[in-house]
Amino acid sequence: MEHFLLEPGWLSRRLDFPKPEEFAAEAATGSLYLLRRYCGKLLYEIEFHGGRELDEKALPSRYVELLGDALKIEPSPSDYLGDIDPSFYVTGYLRSWALHAHLREHFRERFGSTWFSDRKAGGMLRELWSEGHRLNADELLADVTGEELDLDAFAQSLREQLA
Q1: Which long-range contacts (C-beta less than 8 Å, at least 24 apart) are formed by 45-54?
Q2: Torsions phi, psi of 11, nearest 5?
Q3: What radius of gyration do the chain's Cα atoms show?
Q4: Cα(67)–Cα(22) distance, integer angstroms
Q5: Could you report the per-residue pLDDT of 60-83, keeping only the tens digit for each?
Q6: pTM of the full predicted structure?
Q7: Among 14, 34, 101, 106, which one has the highest count of C-beta atoms within 10 angstroms of its own C-beta?
Q8: Other residues' Cβ atoms within 10 Å of the Cβ of residue 12
């Protein structure tokens, strides 16, 4: 639901928000930062857990290199261990953002750009939510749209908001 901040129409209709396009672009900028950060974190965690012997003294600089390249700002080398989440948790965020973007596009195609105001769309959302965690993201997306999960869908969504 947090990504409704990327929907100027929703901001206008539901919150009577002034200049919703500007705010949506600002929200997209924050989401782009998180996308780049989490992609950098994933690269670092893959290396960290990759099974090859790591030079413990080199880890802080490798962390700074990978995250700095992704973000274009230098992170603190002291975070090189604290920024690692268990079980590649970062992939859950990346996959959920991709799923959101796919479903958003599906809802827009099916119900129009103000899909969030359509009762049929609301019914479909309630039906999807009633499934709980029975289906994983891949299964849910395949069931609803027939598509495969692709992170580029989220990147494209952000490009659209920033244009």
Answers
A1: 45/84, 45/85, 45/88, 45/90, 48/84, 49/88
A2: -60, -40
A3: 18
A4: 28
A5: 999 999 999 999 999 999 999 999
A6: 0.86
A7: 101
A8: 16
Percentage of the chain modeled with pLDDT above 70: 99
**Domain boundaries, position 68:** 2-162
- For 105-163, the DSSP string reads HHHHHHH-TTGGG-HHHHHHHHHHHHTTTSS-HHHHHHHHHSPPP-THHHHHHHHHHH-
Residue with tokens 């930062």: 33
Q: Give me 141's structure tokens.
A: 């997306």
CA gap 107, 153 in Å, rounded? 14
- Angle, helix 90-111 to helix 119-130, in steps of 10 degrees: 150
What are 11-18's contacts with CB under 8 Å, separation 24+? 13/114, 13/116, 13/117, 14/116
CA-based nearest residue to 63, from 89, 46, 155, 51: 46
pLDDT at 1: 67
> What pLDDT, on the 0 to 100 scale, is given for residue 33?
94
Q: How many contiguous H segments (helices) and E segments (strands) does the chain have?
A: 7, 0
| Tokens standing for residue 116 | 């969030």
